[in-house]
Amino acid sequence: MSGVDVTAVAKSYGATKVLTDITQSFESSSFTSLLGPSGSGKTTLLRIIAGFVAPDEGAVRIAGADVTGVPVHARNIGMVFQSYALFPHMSVAANVGFGLGRRGIRGKVAKAQVDEALEMVRLPGFGGRYPRQLSGGQQQRVALARAIVIRPDVLLLDEPLSALDRRLRQEMQVELLRIQRESGLTTIFVTHDQEEALTLSDKVAILDRGRIVQMGRPAEVYERPRTKFAAEFLGDANFLTGKIRGNTVEIAGATIATQDALPADGTSVTVAVRPEKIAIRPADSAGNDALENRLPATVSSVIYTGTALTYMLRTGDLHLKVFAQNSDGSPLAAGSAVVLSWAARHSVMVEG
């Protein structure tokens, strides 16, 4: 199978820089999500890899070959769009086999490959139907079958699940991951959905203003964000700003321990702590002495969502958030004095 290499790619539209010096490799047979807000450049990067957009600078290599100046139809890619882009006047089989026909593959060979692709997306026997006779999820599967039937070097997915309702979206996430694992295709997936990126990906690349600010395994990027942007875009985070005092960070009159390497004494730093990493207990109850960090706070409000609780808290000028399981059905009341505690390894120093 084949990987993708992007080297020093830049793209501007007039005075607006969309991508700046993007250099990144996408490993063979891996599933990588490009995650970022609207305008971050993720779709432009995908379209440059596909060949729909030409970069102003830089190069794209697919399967080791430089395809920077190669038109879309001459690149061996499979593409799935947000809108599915199926031909309404053509049967499912004709839609799936469209790319094969353009490659000169017809007859029994084409039929066998179409049947195989429909089997892979779990739509055997649907070849004679038309897109209008299918549900949204089924249309998405047909679009996937059309993309993989040509046996591409890379599969490119541009927010393909965003038009589906939540239940179908979750079902298609499972199916998409299964198909990628079975086919072994190098897959690059554009999404703005954090949960989707964490669920599907071998690697997640977070884009901000035309740059990849962090790329790594989902757990790595989530647990050890490098920047404030990465921490708050992928998940949720509390940010505590203070100064280095010895081997701790002095914040809001408390000393916060971290396992990160510390800069010089007196340096201002920002520490990110995920809301689910923080334990909360009434101030007059016994705590967990194994947790290195403790911070007194007051509950401002409680958001009840059934299985979980979100506590909004304050301590001095700081406003914090804590996620907790609704284990006993008796949430702490607003105005309660509490103690927050967490392990030093969950205090992550971030830039920005």
Automatic annotation (TrEMBL):
Record PROSITE patterns: ABC_TRANSPORTER_1 (PS00211), ABC_TRANSPORTER_2 (PS50893)
Keyword Transmembrane: no
Sequence ranges assigned to domain ABC transporter in this UniProt record: 4-234
GO biological process, one term: quaternary ammonium group transport
Gene3D superfamilies, alphabetized: 2.40.50.100, P-loop containing nucleotide triphosphate hydrolases
GO CC annotations on file: ATP-binding cassette (ABC) transporter complex
Family indicated by similarity: Belongs to the ABC transporter superfamily.
Protein's UniProt name: ATP-binding cassette domain-containing protein
A GO term for molecular function: ATP binding
Keywords on record: ATP-binding, Nucleotide-binding, Transport
